Amino acid sequence: MDLSALPQIRHAQGDNFFLLSGPCAIEGEEMALRIAESIVEVTDRLKIPYVFKGSFKKANRSRVDSFTGIGDEKALKILRKVSETFEVPTVTDIHENSDATMAAEYVDVLQIPAFLVRQTDLVVAAAETGKCVNLKKGQFMSPESMKHAVNKVTETGNEQVIITDRGTMFGYQDLIVDFRGVPVMRQYAPVVLDVTHSLQQPNQSSGVTGGRPELIGTMARAGIAAGVDGLFIETHFDPANAKSDGANMLPLEQLPKLLERLTAIREVITAL
């Protein structure tokens, strides 16, 4: 994976970690632009390579009445507007083979959800678009098994692939990040730690996923210390009223201070 190959990526030649960040789902144009503007300001100041994240639709929901999106094309056009307005690359997740070609017209990175990373046809469809592919490690998969998912991408001739770890299921309602997997997976591709999703508490009796957002800083610091290449952090200016995954998102106003601390840790780790 050559980070500098991503369209409009900035600060890719430095030693800092890169960041995939934004809301869980695209709820509208104003909210997406507001979040992107705030993150672009701090990542430019700290020289963090940045990719705006937003799901154009949410297919993996516990309840049938959960928010799934504002409309595929409408959300994808908003992602394009974010990219054009702030000159940053964008990433969104896909769930069906047909999503790959459609989303590739609007975004720079196609993300394969953790539940779907063993779906060969979906992974290959994403790879064949020529876009960078972000493979979320399945909650049920070992770090070693991600080699095969990466191979599904590279065997199409596409070398632009990232692995994102979002924890491993521990019982029914918890996820655990095993940092021993970081050096294992870095043999196959750059590794990103999904800080916010690894703090989810799924399978609640209410059908609404819970979370431990108070541990976001702890988890992010541990990831940088363990040597991850990038971080994935979902954020929102009003998590309590976000339409998806609000229980484990970082309040947007807390992101600058966290990134400042993480950049300082990264400088120490790089100097060792």
Automatic annotation (TrEMBL):
Subcellular location: Cytoplasm
Keyword Protein biosynthesis among UniProt keywords: no
Keywords annotated in UniProt: Cytoplasm, Transferase
The DAHP synthetase I/KDSA domain, residue ranges: 8-264
Entry GO MF terms: 3-deoxy-8-phosphooctulonate synthase activity
Domain of life: Bacteria
Pfam families noted in UniProt: DAHP_synth_1 (PF00793)
Enzyme Commission number: 2.5.1.55
GO biological process: lipopolysaccharide biosynthetic process
The protein's annotated pathway: Carbohydrate biosynthesis; 3-deoxy-D-manno-octulosonate biosynthesis; 3-deoxy-D-manno-octulosonate from D-ribulose 5-phosphate: step 2/3; Bacterial outer membrane biogenesis; lipopolysaccharide biosynthesis
InterPro entries: Aldolase_TIM, DAHP1/KDSA, KDO8P_synthase
Keyword Cytoplasm recorded: yes
GO cellular component, one term: cytoplasm
Catalysed reaction equations from the record: D-arabinose 5-phosphate + phosphoenolpyruvate + H2O = 3-deoxy-alpha-D-manno-2-octulosonate-8-phosphate + phosphate
Family under the similarity heading: Belongs to the KdsA family.
Protein name, entry field: 3-deoxy-8-phosphooctulonate synthase
Source organism (scientific name): Robiginitalea myxolifaciens
